[in-house]
UniProtKB/TrEMBL annotation:
<dbReference type="InterPro" id="IPR007361">
    <property type="entry name" value="DUF427"/>
</dbReference>
<dbReference type="Pfam" id="PF04248">
    <property type="entry name" value="NTP_transf_9"/>
</dbReference>
<feature type="domain" description="DUF427">
    <location>
        <begin position="15"/>
        <end position="105"/>
    </location>
</feature>
<protein>
    <submittedName>
        <fullName>Uncharacterized conserved protein, DUF427 family</fullName>
    </submittedName>
</protein>
<dbReference type="InterPro" id="IPR038694">
    <property type="entry name" value="DUF427_sf"/>
</dbReference>
């Protein structure tokens, strides 16, 4: 694993909410720390209501993690574009995050420990 990336089990129960709906709840979240950036919570795909998410055409590349694919969240009132991402085939250094999604923590989407 790259020296500046650390992946740890995120203790406790984590939820993701958008548009008043609970999109995910898990006790199996991972916490990724990359350099001096804010830590990111990765939620197992099996603990996410994927019916609320639509895969988009957006792809970005990280030299340490690989290519990220993005998802929009469909709420009752609108679609929140590209608010979640996943490394479908992450580099070997961060293989633990395969099968997980991360969400931007923003006013319309909350990622929190309960």
């Amino acid at each position: 694993m790259s020296d500046h990336i650390k992946i740890l089990k995120a203790n406790g129960t984590w939820t993701v909410r958008a548009g008043g709906a609970v999109l995910a709840e898990t006790k199996n979240a991972l916490k990724l720390r990359e350099g001096d950036r804010d830590e990111v919570i990765y939620i197992p795909r099996g603990d996410i209501a994927m019916a609320f998410l639509d895969k988009t055409d957006k792809i970005t590349h990280c030299p340490h993690k690989g290519d990220a694919t993005y998802y929009s969240v469909v709420t009752k009132s609108r679609t929140l574009q590209n608010v979640a991402w996943s490394y479908e085939n992450p580099s070997d250094q961060v293989a633990e995050i395969k099968g997980h999604l991360a969400f931007y923590n923003m006013p319309e989407v909350t990622v929190e420990q309960i």
